[in-house]
## 1
Amino acid sequence: MNWSKMRRKRYILLSLLLLTLGVQGQKANFEQVERFTNMKFGKLVGTLIVSPHFINGSDRFWYSFVTGDGIRYYYVDPERKVKRELFDREVLARKLSSLTGTDVDARKLALRDFVFERGDKVFSFKFGRLVFRYDVRGNRLEEVKQASPKVLSKKPARLFGKYSPDSTYVAYVKRHDLYVMRVKDSVETRMTTDGERYYSYGRNDRDMGVQDTRAEWFGDSKKMYVIREDMRNVEELPLISIWGRRPTVRAYKCALAGDEYVPQYEASVFDVTAGKKVRVKMEKWKDQLLWLSYAGKSSDQLFIQRKKRTREELEICAVDTETGEVRVVIHERSDPYLNDELYSIAYLNDASEILWWSERSGWGNYYLYDSRGNLKNQVTSGEWTSGRIVRIDTVRRMLYFEGHGQVKDGNPYYARLCRADLDGKGDVRILTPEEGNHKMVFSPSGRYFVDSYSRPDQAPVNVVRDCKGKLLFRLEDPDLSDLYREGWREPECFTVKAADEQTDLYGVMWKPMDFDSTRRYPVIAYVYPGPWTEYIPLDFEFSSLSGASQLAQLGFVVVCFGNRGGSPYRGRDYHAFGYGNLRDYPLADNKHGLEQLITRYPFIDGSRVGIYGHSGGGAMSVAAICTYPDFYTAAVASSGNHDNTIFDYGWSEIHHGIKEIRKGDSVSFEFNVPTNLELVKNLKGHLMLVTGDADDTVNPANTLRLASALINAKKDFELVVLPGQKHGFMGPAKEFYHRKMWSHFVRYLLKE
């Protein structure tokens, strides 16, 4: 198949399509976007980040790295501060050529499955289908004859179920009930009789035979525990499948915001030897959520967490596995809601201590409790966010974690490795101070780590440090020379102020590869409002996942920046900004930020402004063009939750809020949220709506309801339905979506 001819055909077809749309005067660079889209970035660049492979549980490691010079293999001993090539690739290639009778290119030496013998001088590897043993001391290579495949044992294979740690029992589910079989004599015991579809002890709610179970074993193999979900009263949402001789309806369970019936949870403990079920007495709040928090090595140690439906309050409970009674260990409240994205808990030394993350001060910090729930000390503090745990050293009493925002004037989204004393002694120390997003891999002993850090405008830097942050040496740098020769340029980072003129918003700008500062370009904003994350690139990348870099090649300046109410990494006031205002909270910040960029850069044409996004970004794009109809010219909204009354109850109720109503002993909930349907009367610009007809994350009814409202308001718009596509578009449909988006913005923003 001639792929170059196919690309030319696609280019011609797209050009004809745009001409039929009346865009004869546009200056879109279709050839450039085609070339950019089809760039083989991996082949042009090779390796970006070092992936260490530690040798036999030691701190020594090897890694491979590809540059324009081909692939090389390296050996590192951090303790001795040694870094060298693992072997002479030219010598090894000649020896492989001799033994295999083939011409082996040293630059393309694809080796895999390294296994080191004692020490680090002798190792085996696979090359093709053959296995070789290599001694670097004398450059001795020999083929290793592989043993014949073993005859399969006549013992029954472990085809299903969960075996107890001591292999005495296997647990499984039949027709939604829990069973346990004694392995030695295949004696089966039925543990439950109340399982049914949507109230199952199995992981699959379909009516089927034997299947895996939700239940889990304690370490001592005496008991099991399970948290079961009751979905029986949860209503369904339908989807129509067009495939088959007749289209069919597929329905799935989905609790919507404000629903009377939402999933219910219960916890139980099973004593296998006694054949006894003990129900855990976790009942406290109506429609509460339950999760396993920790199960110990002993079957008498179990911790379960429960959370209110209103999501501002949770508790960790210790369970008496004999009686089902519970004791509250830690109670947490954080208004208006708990930060689910960063909330974490770690049990140290088999739950003798509990490390707890909390935003009780307005900023995420770690606190240390004893097993009874008594606060021992605060581990971190300050007006910045203590993020994901990387490593806990219980011997040296050190916590290693990602910190966000401690560096003045630094980007608060970038993760830096920090170290804190678990006992709260001394200040938190930043171990990776460089401005960039750091990714760390610790050695088995915890004495060293590989640090790879980058930014959207800076290629990764790979280094080795000790556990105190001391830089030992730098590893290989990516080779970008071929990429630059192709005309590629990295995006630019910038900051603007939010509409309050106080809060910094961080963003990234993509320009065409043939950018000319004397020209004036339309500007297009790629958006995602949060609040559980912000889709702002933090790492070095060739081609943006959002399609922003490709879109820019047509002749646009494309930008992406945050808004208040977005990232959970910038403190409670920032991420909770949109609470109670789920539709409108990001809009003013986006418009204000774009206005600053228009004023700052003469090459941006403020009379031609576009906006696009997916999911929450799709909803935001519609809200923006309807709220500021004289500012935004064109918008593309894909898979948007335009009506949050028919969206998942968890996300909507958390971030917009749900009102708890008490009348005597009765508790009910009330949910009211503004929708995009209420804004369509204001539309002046050019809007394209896109949805997959099989989307079970944001049901296509969200888009179709909006389309109906637009029709009733006598507004012109485009509607694209992608057959068989779910929330994430795949394959040819994804390519089709991108080309439709390109043509939309070209038609309405690139006119003379």
## 2
Amino acid sequence: MLKVWLLAIACCLPLASHAVLKEKDLAATLAVLRAELANTYNEQKQNIARYNVIAQMQHKQMISLMQRSDQIGLMLYSQKQDFTFDMTYACHEATSLYHEFNKRSMPYQKILDRINTELNRYNALISSLQTIPPAVAGNNAHPQVPVKGKQPTPLLVGPIGGKPAPNGAMQPFMLSKQGQADRDSCLKYATALRDNLDRMKQNVVQDNQHYKMTAGKLGKLNDYALQRYTAIQHNIFINGDANYLEILAQFSRYLQMAKADANEKYDVEKVQDKNKQHNVESQWRGPIVVGLSIFVLFYIFVASLLSNVLVRWLVPKRFRTKEFMKKKVCLILAAAMIIFAISIMVCRTFMYHNFFLMASKLLIEYAWLLCVIFVSLLIRIKGDQIKSGFRIYTPIMLMSFVVISFRIIFIPNNLVQLIFPPILLVFTLWQWSVIRRHNNNIPRSDIFYTWVSLTIMVASTFAAWYGYTLLSVQILIWWMFQLACIQTVTCIYDLLAVYEERYLAKHIGEIANNKVARLNILEAIRKRHEKHINQTWLYDFVAMSVVPVMGVLSILLSIWWAPAIGKAASSVGNLIMWATELQPFFMGILVSVIVGIALTLPISSAAICAALSLTGLAGGAAVAGCCAQMVGFAVMSFKENKWGGLIAQGVGTSMLQVPNIVKKPLIWLPVILSSAVLGPVSTMLFHMTNNATGSGMGSAGFVGQIMTWQVMAQTEHPVVVLLKIVVIQFMLPAVLTVVFAQFMRKHNFIKDGDMKLDL
């Protein structure tokens, strides 16, 4: 579309050869103008020819766009509210088409303004040429443009006033014959240029009418889709459905409802017409789902065969080490998944079926997420631990596949409510079982990740059984994306450590197995790199800045990448605040934990909250999570760091604990749990609020407390506000963290010296 309006403007822009300056006299000026207009006319003809070709293509695209908008409108307006996955797909298509249309917006008004300006200019030029004596007969004459080899016949009258010179002599102010010829040619070229622009204007006006009509139709579609998104989000976070115990009590009724929805959704569409029944083929009915299943199973089988051949027989013998043989089965699985993802991507380029296009897109996303996790485990985990590593993540990966399958087949809500809670419970128990059997044979970081996965699955199970089934689906989809991001970041850290030990240390002249090399990454950077910054600056920058920023941004990106049901907010910040207002319990936990973690990591949580404009209840939950991190680490490590550590962490920053967290991630768990508890307490019991400035500061310099006071003191009694600040931002973080920490110390998860600071 851009080419069209650029050419349109090019056709009416004054070209470099289009203007004349003051020559020695009028005759010379006319001679130069004639040459300039001739060049302009030829260039305009070429531009108009290209414009007509591209305009035809543009008309076809416009027609296609209008048809797509009509098709999506029929799809969107016909959806039932109870079929959430169907409705969200229709809303997504409508909003996507609207944004695509706006990205390719055509500046028709700018084109028309330029054309009108050029038309006025040419009309003035024509009028000026016509009034040069001897005048041309009629101001509306449209002589033809001179053709090569044929001289035009000038239409001339006498000088202005109608009194010719005596004896046919020419008046002093009249043009010579050559001047008259130049003037006539200029007039004819200018007229032709004006007429071409006028015809172009008519075409642009017609296109502009179609464009405005399409824009209005898509605008209505987008508005309706956003309304439906709002209703869906309200159902997810507020209304929910019947809890599963109620469903079990009325199992037969819910089973009949699920069967009816399934038959309506997946049966062949039938139409009764004049006592004759015939089937209507749909791209989204049951037989297509079966076909997709066969398609996926076939490519999984082919990918498995190829990966077996590749790993078992095509790998050279020199690479078949003991470590390789231990990882052989897992390598086959990873290779099979990569081949499957590439195969689906290739097949998708030849697809035209809408259902297969949608389904293949989701399958490709899921396959690449699994590939990221598989590759990360193969790189990071040793051969003796690899099987345990794969088994520990199997439940969450398969559970995610179940959720992705629900999205692909657009499973009805009643059927989801009936089958999803027990399925999720089984997978949660499976996750607990593999943790008990394999957690002693995997790295510390993966132990932490598996416990987080179990926590996520337990929370999802609780939500599903309580009646918030779609919310649990959303949580699981987000965690699958988040887990892939976490595995990527962890893998990068491990690769950095290997690079630092094997190559960088040798380059700066140190022994790889010395005492410093056995320290954690950040301590090694401080000890080893401070004297060799010219050699290590890039490594330090990646390890200390890029990767931590990636870790925090992955949370927001995962929310953005996994729009299963609710992608409608204009910004992430608005979505967070809106969701917190609607569901303060769950969102209180989420906001408090995430912002608290961001504060401890070597990035700016304050900048994140300011960028998201995190205010209201969400801001209150954020500052509670930050205080849990700072105050929690301060009191939890008081035994090791005494009063200096208390002040440095409680009023300064909990970021001081990052080296110890990298060495032993479990020390982070008590403050994270405190954040999870304080989030809903802040939103539901104390109704704490804050502004964007203080929400990400915690107790650093008491900025969070000052901002809380400024916001809340406007509507509540100052003494009450002060008591709330003391309790929620100082007392409870200290008490809760100490309780959780003592429990972990008692079971030897945390030992003396784990949180020692080098102050």
## 3
Amino acid sequence: MTAQETNLLNAFETTLTGTIGASDLTMTVNSVVDSASNTLTAPCYLVLNPDSATNREVVLVTSINSGTKTLTLDNVNKRYLTGSAATSGLSHASGSVVRMSPLQQHIEDINDRVDTVINAAGTALNTTLFLDEDDMTSNSATKGVTQQSVKAYVDTQLTAEDLDISADSGSNIAIDLDSEVLDLEGGTGIDTTTGTNKVTFAIDSTVATLAGSQALTNKTIDVDSNTVSNIEVDNLKSGVLDTDLSSTAGTDTTLPSAKAVKTYVDAQVTAEDLDITDGSTTSAVDLDSQTMTIQGTSNEVEVALSSQTFTIGLPSSITANLVGNVTGNVSGTSGSTTGNAATATALETARNIGGVSFDGTGNIDLPGVNTAGNQNTSGTAADLSATLDETKGGTGLTSFTTGDILYASGSNTLAKLSIGSSGQTLQVSSGGIVEWATATTGDITGVTAGTGLSGGGTSGTVTLNVDSLAVAQGGTGATSFADKSVIITQDSGTDTLAAVAMDADGELLIGGTSGPAVATLTAGTGVTITNADGAITIAAPDVGDITGVTAGTGLSGGGTTGAVTLNVETSQNITALTGGDLTIYEDANNADVSLKMGTSATESLTIEVLNGGSNKTAEQINFTTATASGTADHGKMVFNVDETTIATIDDGGIDLASGLEFSVNGTAIGGSAGALIDGDSDFTLTDGVASGIHYELDNTDMADWNQAGVVLTTAGGIFQHHQTQAATYSVPANTGAVLAGPITITGTITNNGTMVVI
């Protein structure tokens, strides 16, 4: 047999999930993984029905789809291998055992591969696998080489080669490896010595080292790149230190002592003054005899002196006009700040949005919306991240191949049946599931015409013709019909049909004791009948004057003269409508239609549709309750869904039931009761577009809020802050800009940026 490597798994066994016919080349199994989680790989030998002496079959699987658990044989020669119960005609039912066992084929495969390397006796290698070539000229050969070839080639290369050497200076040299010796010599400050298979390079005594005590002669030390420590006055050369600066020349390069510097500076300060200016006026302060005073301005600037430190600051209360940007911290206990904040780094008091704390320092992640969180995501949405099982409307399967058929293999369980072979049909197995089977065929020896048929024969091409099909066979018993005929049955006989023409205007099919017949309607007294093509018109004769109206059941009133009125009695009021719709229309301009329910006009609910004065457009829908009592909340409206109260409308407004929320386009507008009044609860408003949110009051533009911030219109006014703060209130730098004044601030202002005060 041909040598080939086949794969093995210890103790691998599974079962078929579908039937394998005698010529099938694919099979599906329940598992392709053994008990040790090893996956079956091709090529491999398997045994089908291994415990059956009459149905055992050895096959060679050539490819495996681990996803669909499908095993494939590339041709029929991979079936009915040695060890099978037969050489053809074997089939295997769904559920049959599939096992991997040690086989003759495995041993033969190994022997065949070994025989390609070692001779049959096991005494020598196969010489065809080696190449004896002294010069190694074949650079594409894949065979091994002999000892002789390696030695000859290496000896040749060493004799012919030399060692090329280059240095920082001088020309390159070449050392013949077969006849010359490389000499390694030391240069200035370097000694070389030889030892066992090595050359040692060392620094000689002329080189100063970090650990040595050599004296430096004619050397330059770069102080910028080195540190010189422990220098004292007595280490300085005479003439380096100058103790008297009174007559020092401008070109003198000596170093001054501290005494010399003090003496000189004192003399210079005594003779100097300090020039100061405010931009327009200049003055001088004699540093030896005069004092410069720095004075603040009431309610604008405060000046304080402690030891040698001047402190210039703003008083706790400032009244001034500010023009331009104000950066830094602004604090106070009263007054107001108006304008727009360009930036904000943090809110003094954090607020919750959708249950997430927000202080302005970072973006908000809403759990269950744009991050994982505590929102309820159970049910079908959660199942979509995994295989959707049958109880959720899925299949429980992850992949299919062309031709697969789904069938119920159990309660709430779907299974796949792979496509069958050409000519096979579906049948129900003994186990009650569908399977493919080869149709049973045979030779037809004759065709006999049965009831309603004629023809037939016992040889050649046989023809069958349909005779006139009787009523008993579902036919009419006739072979032709007149134009515009209908088929009826009469007393002419049992199971007998006849064709009757209906070609005159107004003809009808009318039943009778003698059977149905075609006829036209006959006009009686006071009635006229006009027959047309496909239509019949019945008209009543002219009537006379009404001489009296009598109230019938459920009505009262009536009369014999004048305008007669009929009234529905109270007992006839509608108390219930069962089945169908109640529709109230009035096809007229300005037709206001209303529906009233209750005990009286003062104790009722009115639903009213108001139409335009010159059209039929529903301009307004009114829901109105009326009560005779002035008690609060009488006539309130309660909205129930699934018999559960959702919201109530009463004198106090609209009250949403506890635990519920309003939503806009699926986005909740959350908050507890009073959230839009007290401001103590979360309120989220999202429109999902970058253009922002537009605010109107009484159809007047008030503000626009977009990604650039909040912009108030003239009608919107200004932002005002009336919250009482601590005596000292700090605002971080670059928090925002005040674009308008005047501003009155009471308290301490700590300025971390630039402030313009006018």
## 4
Amino acid sequence: MMVSRLQRLEKKKGSKIRNIVGIVITILVISGIFLAWRVYGFYRGIKQPTRKLIVTKSPEEKYTYNLLVLGYGGGKHDGAYLTDTIMIVHADTKKKKAVLISIPRDVWVKVPTTTQENFHYKINALYEMGLFPQDFPNVDKKYLAYGDSAGLIKYAGLEILGFPIDAYVSVDFSGFTKAIDILGGVDVVVDRAFSDYEYPIAGKETDLCGRDEEFKQIEPLINKQMSEEDKVKLFKEKSDLENFFNEIKDEPNKAFPCRYVTLQFEAGPAHMDGEIALKYSRSRHSLQDGGDFNRAKRQQKILEAVKDKFLSIGGLTKILPLMDEMQNYIKTDVPEDDIRRLFPEIKNLNEYEIIPLVIAEPQYVISSYSDYGQYILLPKSGKDNWRQVQTDVKNIMDGITPAPTLSKKNKTN
């Protein structure tokens, strides 16, 4: 039977479509391989050379992950690696649930030592201790074995939450701002308007703002190298120095105005670039929304906004430039096996119930002072007693204790 001209055309058309589909599939496969290769290259670039000492679960059994997230200022000034942001993500891939736990930087924690002395320090200094252990000779180095610079703060996380920390991710704040800018900014709802008159300007931490001569005269007093008699005599002769000294203690923005910038945020929806988002998440001196507890809540909102933007169509197109830029600002010790298991979960993030928890006053901690006069936060239940926090985190994951939900999108359990 002769094949009609129409049938030949249809056959030719079908063959062309199959060829096009084949080409598209080939391009997608090659693109997928290229993306996987780039992701793996990025991971190898930020992965720190550590080795796990204890394996508690086989890879097949693992469905809960505890990730420590640290943010630090960076730079070359003193305290560059003090962690202003300390969060622990406790995630369950079976339950599609995660608790985002913020730990204030002033929490007073026990630090293990080789001398067994009762040594405590603010938790925000532990990462820096791990990076420069030679400055703390009595700290027990077994927690820093195999180059694990986050070993001490992981230990503190275990003491506070009652479960071991699997891995950490540390981010220089410079990288934080760049990442948000690459994503095109983030959208955040500001809960309440606030003004902060003491937001520090990076690089100006020690600037005397033209008051060098005045500072030189009271520097011995600040360093506690001046007797009470000499202090009274100095202030009697130069009352302006007494005012300057009091401003340094009580109103540093007046004593050194060049060190600070005023921040103002209005309540309601706001689109923030990287610099504004960083200021919003780090501000802590406003009367309306100040302190570490409110700051922790704002940091959680920014993290949620970054997640939403990253998962948007526009955000997904920025994966490659984001990896190129961020490689110099991120460090992690997440094991390669965990990366392989967690990478497919990215597409499911919108299904996760994310529950925020701030270890805040008065529910979990109380204000106090160390023997050296430092402002610190102690567990409400007593020094080193974190049982209430541990119980509440477990109950939240088990669905026993109601908690305010930060986001719950397309929840499927």
